[in-house]
Amino acid sequence: MILSELHLSCCNGDLDKLKEYINKDNINEIVTILNEAEDDQWTLIQYEELTPLICAIQNNHLCIVKFLVEQGADIYLLKTIRTACQYKHLSIINYLLDILIVKYNLISLKRSPPLSSLSLWYEKDASEWLEALPVGNGYMGGMIYGGYPREIIQLNSDTLWAGCPHDYSNKDALNYLSQIRQLIQDNKWNEAQTMLTQNFFGKPIGQAPYQTVGDLFIDFFQESSSSISIDQYQRELNLEKAIATTTYSTSNGVHFERTCFASYPDNCIVYNVQASVRYS
Asked: 194 Cβ partners below 8 Å, 6+ apart?
């Protein structure tokens, strides 16, 4: 019920009540809950897939938004600023833009296309999973978003999948083999297929789906970063070399290049950051 109580406090703008639910004894649980959707018991008010932070933004409670962010609520998700803009809550919009560190300018300086014709390249970072650039080695994989000031890498491993270890073999399959062959010889294909599916194939028939390992966040912070903008942004996936690269220049004159690839021999994902100025 903690999440339901958090939602209610955020919607009502009750900061004192909200603080009652957040204390040093449950802070780790709260930080996780702040970034999750509502529980089943909260569907009475139909706040579908809303975090407490989104509830507070929708109801224009700036003090609640500030408090939740201080407790660890993730404002880097695009939905936060989008919601504030949708409801035209200017005070929250300004606060979020300041906290987000970088106020993006229109990119006036653009980079030239990559030299390799076997490259996918884009002039802005990925806003959703389908736009991210993949790297993988057969064991593990990563989806590179190429964001600034926060890089997001969604990780995947072949050892993490739904369900639990089990035996796919069907011990009774042999008992039906002769019947299935006879049905095929009699051109009774539908009956043969039904018997195959029900009595011959392993259980379950389908492969259990892989599950995400999680999201890796890499934050890039600099001095006076609230006034820093970027240009000449480009992210690229070189299909020939299997390397994902993100390049950009900041308004204080520093050029960055971030490179990521997955190594098969070393069974690892490598992420390298280079800057034109030391300690930047």
From this structure: none
